[in-house]
Design brief:
The complex is a heterodimer. Chain A is mainly alpha-helical. Chain A is built from 14 helices and 3 strands. In chain B, about 50% of the residues are buried. The N terminus of chain B is likely disordered. The chains are: A mainly alpha, B mainly alpha.
Chain lengths: ~350, ~350
Amino acid sequence: MTLLELRRSGGRTAFRLGRPPVSGVLRGRVLLCCLGLAALTFVVFCVGIATGDYPVSPLRVVPALWGSGDPGQVFIVRELRLPRALTAVLAGAAFAVSGAIFQTVTRNPLASPDMIGINAGATTAVVAGIVLASGAGLSLPALGLAGGLATAALIYLLAWRGGATGYRIVLVGIAVSWMCASATDYLLTRAQLTEAQAALGWLVGNLNGRGWETVGPLSAAVLVLLPAGMLLGRWTRTLHLGDEVARGLGTPVQLARLCLVVVGVALVAFATAATGPVLFVALAAPQVAQRLVGLSAPPMLASALTGALMVSASDLVARWLIPDVDLPVGVVTGALGAAFLLWLLVRANRAGSGG
Amino acid sequence: MTTDQAAPVSPTGPTRATGHRPTRPVGLFLVATTVLIVLSLLSVAVGSRQIPLDQVVQTLLDRAAARAADPQVEAIVWGVRLPRTVLGLLVGIALGLSGALMQGLTRNPLADPGLLGVSAGAALGIVVAIAWFGIATLYGYIWFAFVGALLASVVVYLLGGLGRGGSTPVKVALAGVAITFLLNSLTSAIVLRDPDALNRYRFWAAGSLSGPDFGTIGQLLPFLAVGTVLALAAAPALNSLALGDDVATALGRRVGLVRLQGTLAVTLLAGSAVAVAGPVVFVGLVVPHLARLITGPNHRWLLPFTMVLAPSLLLLADIVGRVVARPSEVGVGIIAAFIGGPFFIMLVRRRRLAEL
């Protein structure tokens, strides 16, 4: 047995490693896309850290990250700007993978967590915390986390009737999302103006003033949940073919769906707690990644990288466009992500790849 | 496609195995219509001054006699409550129909009337009217909203059809979502710099049936009428489209033409509804699912049922909203969610689902 075995058949290359025992299809385009996206994300990450009131040369950023160079610069880079840049990358990846998971489980490209009620639940919890118990010292991220998880559990339980189907999850999610959004509206109409402003600032999705206390829980969650999502990726590939086919191929459908939903919900809840509901990333990033790598279902790793790039780049653009105003990053992800997704839709070069 | 696994050998008998009972919707339709008529009368009767139902009917039947008898009641009924009720009926019909059409065209249960970018276009139209043209009256910027909705849906339709694959349901849906978010970002960017626009925009965005007069309603009526006719005429073609584009083509449908007709209907209906009443699109998202639980996937019955159920829900929510928090009012969208949501979840759990 050789260490690495390559075999070509039908225009595809399969590989098998001796140790660890891994085999799979080698997809050149996926590999290239992932490398390209990772490199681009790193560049945007460094430029993002370099930009600000006190400009640091982008080339000095990498050494400063390791603690070498001017102590003042090291302080600015590591203590002031790194947390924000890390939050952008981690939250973007988390939103994107969560979106990829939900789009696969429900087999619906519109079924991102913000469309089926999970973000709406987190938002209601946070707004209720601001309006009903202002001054009680409740931590907004913790409230958002609890609200998101509770809403997801509620949706799953209500959709459970001898097993949950993707379709029923979507329908129950619509109703729950509608009720949560209405509850938020009602709370906002009852609120004082200052409370309403505080709530709205959180509602759009925001990276301003994020420090290490935000990065800690988020990075822990992403480090555990992202690999879990990747490992479950083999199930998503069969689930995408429909329940019957997946069962025929030996996938434990209900178990797989439950595991995937738990991972997806946890990812989006932690990300929402850190940044607020950043619009559109969970929906657009998996679709963009799917079209970039040319597969029929959203790929996990490429989605994560796309999401990270999308949020980091949006943050950078927001700060470049209007330097004196702290534009919420959610406003820019909408515009940037939409423009890119439209471009991909329009240049779809063969029948079916666009939709 | 049905996904409940135990269905074919279900012990409860063949009616469950076929998905939904072969219902006779005629009777149910008559019941629903009666409920809608009663709700319309109640909507005229209920408010901060209660008017007995028989007096409502008399006032509606003979306006001159009513004015002679009790001018105050006549003024309330004809001046305030009737326009509001008529608007509720029209907006409900428009949102319900356009939601059902949108779900049929994109074959996606998450499609709502705003999916073509209609709500976002209308919102941008209003913000532009206030911030750049300085238009301040509520019914001055309805037309900006309407034009914004029209333009947005035209752009979505064109973008969804570009590329070599032509127009597919997924492409239209994704193009619609993308345009919606793009326009919303533009709206936010303008609103963030113009507090006056923000203030008026929030007033519209809350959604309300109060405040119109018959003049405004009359101006929108032609658009709504044309949209309704186009929508109902598309029903048989939508049934074919539900089998997939290839099968529909094989059955002799001109798929592109059906899409154009449906898109036009959705734009006219949802565009005018959203322009007057604000983005209360959730009614159009949920009510078609409710109707589908009753009728099954046949659009010939589905569309009439949504036409009756959607205004019923809207009027019921409007009536309850006037009563629960006297003397102030609770927005119609909020009440509709808390009446319609639990009922909808209960139905989703009880019935086998006819999927799109």
